[in-house]
Amino acid sequence: MSEVQTKSVKAPRGAKKPAAGPCVRVTLVRSLIGSPQDQRRTARGLGLRKLNSSAVLADTPAVRGMIGKIVHALKVEAVEKP
pTM for the whole thing? Predict the structure, then answer.
């Protein structure tokens, strides 16, 4: 008597719940070559990998702080919903 085991289905890597409320779209418009490592890690934390890549994020104080750290390399736009 064998039991059938079911696996729980995970969301794809990097998938996040859509944020309710105001959002911002951030786009990496300048290269981070030669910039400090913490600024590169901040860009990765925002979900930006390559030049001209963009991400839609919830407009929270934490995200605003990350944007402020590398604002010289970003284009920031307010959007209603992703």
Answer: 0.73
